[in-house]
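I'm stuck. Protein, please.
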Amino acid sequence: MTKWEYVTVPLLVHATKQILDNWGEDGWELVAVVPGPNAEQLVAYLKRPKEGQ
């Protein structure tokens, strides 16, 4: 069975693609994007398999 690790990442509206591309290059997969604490911020939830799996 695959074990996962997770991370939450604040997204800046003007740099969303660049932020997600950088995390994707490190093997992170986007799970969801939800509203952040204010109207101008989003939060991305990402996952990737734990190392050694």
